[in-house]
From TrEMBL:
Residues 36-108 form the RNA 2-O ribose methyltransferase substrate binding domain. InterPro entries: Alpha/beta_knot_MTases, Ribosomal_eL30-like_sf, rRNA_MeTrfase_TrmH, SpoU_MeTrfase, SpoU_subst-bd, tRNA_m1G_MTases_N. Residues 1-31 are annotated as: Disordered. PANTHER family: 23S RRNA (GUANOSINE-2'-O-)-METHYLTRANSFERASE RLMB. It comes from Novosphingobium rhizovicinum. This is TrmH family RNA methyltransferase.
Length: 266
């Protein structure tokens, strides 16, 4: 990724103020089928991702100056004021002077990640629909070197600016496998030698007691509702985090962070 002379704008396709831009405020999915990402970490990671195809960057000069590298001289930049960029993103979204329009990432298949290092866990999310939670879980998955995050194609948030901002760049790093049938995906994980542990507050066994020495797939259920019965039946063990009785449960992203840490500390 590169950043040229922002003030001179040499060789760039400068297109005036952002006030003339189409496609108004939203979650980060443009009406053209493109994805809008915002915020320095999400935008910078997307620019550095060789698998991401970019269309245009709307930016303030301060936003471009905050990037770690240099933009190619022919990269399509449209200079804007911060107030103009605010019209392109979700309400009150902290765009930090950067809004990037790009194509969605290519599909990743479960078979593509099962050949990874077996010491790296797989995180499976059963109908976790909040993009902030999924993004936060991706960030934690990247931090603890998870091999992939697996969700359903439906009943899961789409790729979006909101999710990418919460992921803080991890969307470009952690493979996101979207499957039609989550139960079948768990069967594939078992066939590949993964021990599938579902997290549930009512379980008798703690996660530390359930962890094996080999490959692990952690399964987390939806916010509030937990894992569906069919998904629970496709787990090899059901375990709980040993939290205090003073608190009934943890947010799913917090629970995922604790569980991934426990796997890393085996």
């Amino acid at each position: 990724m590169a950043k040229g002379d922002a003030k001179a704008g040499s060789g760039r396709a400068l297109r005036g103020r952002a006030g003339r831009m189409k496609n108004g405020r939203g979650s980060g999915r443009a009406s053209t089928g493109m994805v809008r990402l915002w915020g320095r970490h999400a935008v910078e990671a997307a620019l550095m991702n060789p698998d991401r195809r970019h269309t245009k960057l709307w930016a303030t000069r301060e936003g471009v100056d905050s990037l770690s590298g240099e933009l190619p001289s022919d990269f399509p930049v449209e200079w804007a004021q911060a107030a103009d960029l605010a019209r392109l993103v979700a309400r009150d979204a902290p765009h930090q002077g950067l809004v990037l329009e790009c194509e969605p990432l290519e599909d990743v298949y479960l078979s593509d990640v099962l050949d990874a290092d077996p010491a790296r866990p797989v995180l499976v999310l059963d109908q976790v629909t909040d993009p902030h939670n999924v993004g936060a879980l991706m960030r934690t998955a990247a931090a603890f070197n998870a091999a992939a995050v697996v969700t359903q194609d439906r009943h899961a948030p789409p790729e979006s600016g909101t999710l990418a901002k919460s992921a803080s760049g991890a969307l470009e790093v952690v493979p996101w496998v979207r499957v039609v049938n989550l139960a079948r995906a768990l069967e594939e994980l078992a066939e590949a030698g993964y021990w599938r542990i579902g997290l549930a507050g009512e379980a008798e066994m703690t996660l530390a007691e359930a962890l094996p020495a080999g490959p692990v797939a952690l399964v987390l259920g939806a916010e509030g509702e937990g894992m569906r019965h069919n998904i629970m039946q496709h787990c090899d063990a059901i375990a709980r985090l040993p939290i205090s009785d003073a608190m009934e449960s943890l947010n799913v992203s917090n629970a995922g962070a604790v569980a991934l840490y426990a796997v890393a500390m085996r």
